[in-house]
Write a structure and sequence with these properties.
The chain is α+β, with helices and mostly antiparallel strands and 373 residues long. It has helices at residues 11-18, 100-116, 180-188, 258-269, 328-337; strands at residues 4-7, 21-24, 38-41, 52-53, 59-60, 92-98, 119-125, 128-133, 149-155, 161-165, 174-179, 195-202, 206-214, 222-229, 231-232, 251-254, 274-279, 285-290, 295-300, 322-327, 344-350, 354-360, 364-371. It has two domains: 4-240, DNA Polymerase III, subunit A, domain 2 (DNA Polymerase III, Chain A, domain 2, Roll); 251-371, Box (Proliferating Cell Nuclear Antigen), CATH 3.70.10.10. Strands 15-11-7-8-9-23-22-21-16 form a nine-stranded antiparallel sheet. Strands 2-14-13-12-6-10 form a six-stranded mixed sheet, with helices on one face.
Length: 373
Amino acid sequence: MPALLITGAETEAFCERAGGQVRTALARPPGVGSRPGAAEARTEPGTRVPSLLGPGGRAGRAAPGTPADRKDLWHAASPSEAPSCLRCGVMKFRAKITGKGRLELFIHVSGTVARLAKVCVLRVRPDSLCFGPAGFRGLREAGLRCEAGLWCEVRRGAFQQFRMEGASEDLDEIHLELTAEHLSRAARSAAGASSLKLQLTHRRCPCLTVAVALASPLGRARSVVHDLPVQVLPRRAWRDCPPPSLRAADASIHLPRWKTLRSIVERMANVGDHVLVEANLRGRMTLSMETEVVSIKSYFKNLGNPPESAGVPPHRDPESMVQVRIDNRKLLQFLEGQQINPTMALCNIWDNSLLQLVLVQEDVSLQYFIPAL
């Protein structure tokens, strides 16, 4: 059956007309060329292929002279033909998400990760999925210095089905490097869907296949399948993306209302590049900025401290402020990119070393690290 080229914006319209399955490749592996922004679509056997909607909503058909065996197309097999393991090993991964709440949560998580990291490492473990920055070597224990980065964990409870087999019984993990925006775009296609499936496959290169089952007003089953090329990291590269391990913070405090905090940081970003964050163990927090022209300072009181922050050394004065000066743009990037709607939001400070922002929900936790300047 001839392969049709459609753009991402035309996928939903094509799927509605065809009433079958649409497979897209959001990115190609290196060395495989294709028309920019194009994707390959296949429909179920026996499905009549209607005209496609072209740019601006105009009806159009596949360009003439586009044979099914074009060498510059990345042809993907149908789901029934998809191997569940990689040619390079026996690692397997398959997960399924159902329910409106869980689907929206995964869409928000993938969107947040995409806003904070262009390329990320997806660490598949028996009990969770963890997103970390590529090449992240963890925090230096002595100085607590690092580049700005995130660590997001989605626990098994967010999935209806979750199955994985790692490299071995001793190393029961899989590390995949992928483009975060590609995963976010694939997840957004699940808005209003009945289910979303994740599977590790091999289609001329290792892929994370995202299959979305869409509801049809005509009663016909529809699905959109995205093949996201990934790089399977060898064991020697696993040490570059360990989970963060930190000593107890010098100060830990609950964050103020999200909209209020973001509004203040946005205004400060228009004035200067650096912001001084201070907090103590009595629920007080301040944000300040000073330039040659203007000085700005915002005060927050009675924010509360988490229970674990009560175990401070006896010589420590709870009223004393712990401070860290950070890049205001990185703080604003986090505040604008967060989509999780957490049940608890914390700010941890290591004096003049590191700022850690922690968001916690029932099945998701996200940490974002901003080093001191």
